Amino acid sequence: MNDLDALLAALADMPEPHFASSPERLRNLREYLAAVQQGSFSGDLLVGDACLSQSACLTGIPFASEFLLRADAHPFLAALRPSLWVEGKQFEQASYDLWMALGDSQAVPGLWQLVHLKAGDDAEECEASLFRHLLRVLKPRRIFAWGKDVTDFLGRQFPELEVRPLLARRSSWHEEALRLELEWNGVIKASQEESQVSRGSELGQLYLKVLPRHAIADTATASREEIQNCGVAAAGVLDDQCRFTFFRHGQTAALARMLQQARQVVGYDCLIFDFELIRGETKFKRPPALDLRQEIEDATGKRLSFENVARTVLGILPGSPDELMRVLVAQADWENVSLHLETYLTLLTKLHHQLSE
């Protein structure tokens, strides 16, 4: 039995609760750890507890929610996704913030969660045994602990290890703080440098929708400065392989980099507005673009809404997606914002294909 098999066997025998309590979740964990072993591992192991993240109870993978896996939120997760079992669409802020803080790094830290942390509890001994298996599997160069409970547990059970505490205050857990903390400790610096190699390659056709943080009364008469001051609340990008990427406020620079690699960016009655929203937050050179509304107006002499064209060309009545997404942004319902952006862009892709035939 190899080290990974031994770890999974020990986990299956753990007293519940634990985060891989079904055959499907155990298989997911196997796929995740095998992928980390096969060259993606940066050498750093980040250890949290179940109070920080509940997502592993649903997916079997520490700090990887169902939403993250479905959204291909990071290149590592996107490559892993086809081999995983994912049942729902659960969103979790802590997991989302962690993977967004990692950026588009090619090498990723190992992630682990501890469940049984109570001193003197028999289950803690089982947890410690499990962690010993994990150390043999990953052989980390450095270990980081999130929170006092995790730091205390590792200090009791593994006094020989040098453990570095991270983010002792859970109130500090958000993307910007995480990124600064990880950069300060050198967890993501090397990964980001390595990722620069792949940024120069051209992407194909990208379909774009950007949602502003603040509504504007009349976009047709608004000045460039007024539009730029709105800010970017969220954005969705669908590539020509139907792979969806979701961006939140604070990730506009990554969105701009992605768009500038595109052969062409396609939108509907929004591209100039979208580009100005992006320019309001980061340096951005406009890529080759196609506005389908303008194409239709040039061909028919009519200015048609997205809903009208979708109904006429596709036989679909999508309602008013812009209004719905504005409501969801105001409610900070990012899971449904992402789902509706993906639906909108999928319809836009179908519409473009139909009009091109």
Description of the molecule:
The chain is α/β, with parallel strands linked by helices. It has 2 domains: about 5-195, Uracil-DNA Glycosylase, subunit E; about 200-355, Nucleotidyltransferase, domain 5 (2-Layer Sandwich), CATH 3.30.420.10. About 50% of the residues lie in helices and about 15% in strands. The chain has 17 helices and 9 strands. The protein has helices spanning about 5-10, 25-40, 55-60, 65-70, 75-80, 95-100, 120-140, 150-155, 175-185, 190-195, 225-230, 250-260, 270-280, 290-300, 305-315, 320-330, 335-355; strands spanning about 40-50, 110-115, 140-145, 165, 205-210, 230-240, 245-250, 260-265, 290. The protein has a 5-stranded mixed beta sheet with strand order 7-6-5-8-9, with helices on both faces. Strands 2-1-3-4 form a 4-stranded parallel beta sheet. Strand 8, helix 13 (about 270-280) and strand 9 (about 290) form a beta-alpha-beta unit. Helix 16 (about 320-330) packs antiparallel against helix 17. It starts with a helix and ends with a helix.
Query: Which CATH architecture of the largest domain is right?
Result: 3-Layer(aba) Sandwich
* Strand proportion: 15-25%
Count helical runs: 17
DSSP strand tally: 9
**Number of structurally distinct domains:** 2
What is the oligomeric state here? Answer: single chain
Question: In a nutshell, what does this entry contain?
Answer:
By secondary structure, the chain is an alpha/beta fold.
What's the layout of helices and strands?
Layout: H1 3-12, H2 23-40, E1 41-49, H3 56-59, H4 66-71, H5 75-80, H6 93-101, E2 108-114, H7 122-138, E3 142-146, H8 148-157, E4 163-166, H9 175-184, H10 189-195, E5 203-212, H11 224-230, E6 232-239, E7 244-248, H12 252-260, E8 262-267, H13 271-279, E9 289-291, H14 292-300, H15 306-314, H16 321-330, H17 334-356
Parallel strand pairs: 1-2, 1-3, 3-4, 5-8, 8-9
Antiparallel strand pairs: 5-6, 6-7
